[in-house]
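User: tokens in, sequence out, please.
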């Protein structure tokens, strides 16, 4: 019983390294032909020094950027985020309608249950790998951003 519980908690453990934690990484399933996807997750600085996220790359995409969506008067606009500072203990949510990783020009269509390998790049030179799961997004009307 104890052994089972330990094994289970190991499997469910979020990715963690160097004072960083990523939870629930996902890419909403989009129909074939859509040339931009998004990735969402929660990034937490569990260390005791500020971290600066300065970029992201994704296997199978020509480009990946950190974007922020802002909605004003029902119009959504996206802007690039060059540096995202995360204070010790702070969690930053990448989510629909806000901060997100934008994935552009996929080399293949998304498959439900597949994964997208992301690498988060930090100002201190650290590269943090994230496996995002491809799954349908509940209640999504649009594939990205809005
Ligand atoms: Cu975007």
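Assistant: Sequence out:
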């Amino acid at each position: 019983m104890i052994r089972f519980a330990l094994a289970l908690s190991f499997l469910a453990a979020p990715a963690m390294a160097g004072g960083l934690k990523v939870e629930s990484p996902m890419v909403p399933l989009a129909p074939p032909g859509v040339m931009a996807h998004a990735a969402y997750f929660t990034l937490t600085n569990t260390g005791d020094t500020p971290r600066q996220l300065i970029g992201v790359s994704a296997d199978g995409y020509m480009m990946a950027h950190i974007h922020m969506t802002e909605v004003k008067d029902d119009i959504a606009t996206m802007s690039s985020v060059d540096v995202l500072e995360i204070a010790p203990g702070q969690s930053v949510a990448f989510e629909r309608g806000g901060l997100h990783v934008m994935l552009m020009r996929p080399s293949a269509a998304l498959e439900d249950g597949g994964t997208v390998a992301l690498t988060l790049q930090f100002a201190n030179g650290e590269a943090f790998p994230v496996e995002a799961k491809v799954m349908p997004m509940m209640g999504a009307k649009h594939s990205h951003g809005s």
